[in-house]
Each structure stands twice: as C-alpha cells, then as structure tokens.
From TrEMBL:
Gene3D superfamilies: dinb family like domain. It holds the Pfam family MDMPI_N. This is Maleylpyruvate isomerase family mycothiol-dependent enzyme. Residues 8-94 form the Mycothiol-dependent maleylpyruvate isomerase metal-binding domain. Keywords: Isomerase. SUPFAM superfamilies: DinB/YfiT-like putative metalloenzymes. GO terms for molecular function: isomerase activity. NCBIfam families: maleylpyruvate isomerase family mycothiol-dependent enzyme.
C-alpha cells in the first residue's frame, strides 16, 4: 500500500468515526488546546474546502501568522458547518492531494493521524491507528519534528510498550506507540496513558478541573 492510499484510508476511517459521534461528543474538548472536536474536524478539512487564493486571503487577515489563521478558520467553520458536513468534507476528499506547507506527503498522513488521535484520546475511544500507518510516522520522526511542534524531549527516551520502538535517550517515558507519537507532536495526555519517570511531565493534571473519560 503506497502512502497516498494510506492517507485515503486514514481519512475514510476518521470520517466514519466522526459520523458515529453523538452531538455531545462533538462539543467535547480535544487534545488541541482551546478546540473542541468540531474545531479539529474543521481544521482537518480546511485544505480541502479552500483553494490557495482563499487561503492566501485568510493568511493576510491573520497578518501572516499561519497558526492564527488556522485557529480563526477552525472556529468560524466549526460554527458554520454541521457535524455531518464536516465529516463529509473529510470523507469526500479522502484522495485529495493536499499537503502541509512543509513535510510533504508523510506530513499529510501525520496531520490526519495526529488530529484523529486528538479526538479519540480526548474522548476516551479505543481506536488504534493501524500499525503500518503508525510505523511509517515513527520511522520519519526526528528531533526537528518534535521541536517544530513544541515538544521538549531533551533528556527523555520515548519507549513504546506495544511495539519494538524507542526514540531519544534519558529518562524513560513509556506508553503505547501512538500515545508517544502524540507526545512527540507536542501533546500532553490524559492521566493513565503514560508511565515511567518522565510521565508527570507529559500528562495532563487530573486535578485541573477538566473531565476525562
């Protein structure tokens, strides 16, 4: 299976998962700070729904700040589009050639997988990313990728307990490979997902007032 087929499969799986969510789940917080499930879905489908000229205009409105533009559009589009429309935008564009500005086709797969996990992990759903997709992303993970997404992994060894995979060196952080991939992309995880001496550093506080499944 080539990577474009893998991307299409991931988008199809994500759309099917979104189709099965309850109205309440669409309004639950994701692992993306400040975004509910619906904002994440709007963000995932942004590149399919807007052509480059429109994205350029949106970037100008955000004074050239890509993150500000993405946040603004996610919030506006999540308010304007129904859950069914957001899921359909992902499903109907499974084979869309969109790529992030950097990283190419592998980054496109990472974009879909990571944001899918932003949803499923936050909701406590038991979805496991197929191993061939996960291995592809783990093989392409670099310290530069982690730094780009704000993950401070200095002095930490990511050590998967479900795959023969580790990354970095130092204080151990142990968990499922897909959870460790989230850590490498700058996420903190709900309590119980991680173990090892570095777990507290990369886990969300159970006493923060946020409700976890």
């Amino acid at each position: 299976m080539d990577i474009t087929t893998t991307i299409a499969a991931e988008r199809t799986d994500l759309a099917a998962l979104l189709d099965g969510l309850s109205p309440a789940q669409w309004d639950e917080p994701s692992l993306c700070a400040g975004w509910r499930v619906r904002e994440v879905a709007a963000h995932v489908s942004l590149g399919f729904r807007y052509r480059l000229p429109r994205l350029a205009i949106e970037l100008l409105k955000a004074r050239g700040d890509v993150n500000r533009m993405a946040d603004r559009r996610a919030r506006l589009d999540a308010a304007a589009l129904s859950p069914a429309e957001l899921a359909a935008a992902i499903r109907d564009n499974a084979h869309h050639p969109w790529r992030p500005p950097v990283g190419g086709v592998t980054a496109a797969l990472a974009h879909d997988v990571i944001h899918g996990l932003d949803i499923t992990v936050a909701l406590g759903l038991e979805r496991r990313v197929p191993r061939e997709r996960l291995r592809l992303l783990l093989e392409h993970l670099t310290p530069r990728t982690a730094r780009f997404f704000g993950a401070d992994l200095a002095g930490v060894e990511l050590r998967a307990d479900d795959l023969a995979w580790s990354f970095g060196s130092g204080t151990p952080l142990v968990g499922a490979a897909q959870d460790l991939l989230l850590v490498a992309y700058g996420r903190k995880l709900p309590p119980g997902h991680l173990s090892g001496a570095a777990a507290d550093r990369f886990s969300l506080s159970s006493g923060s007032g946020r409700r976890w499944p």
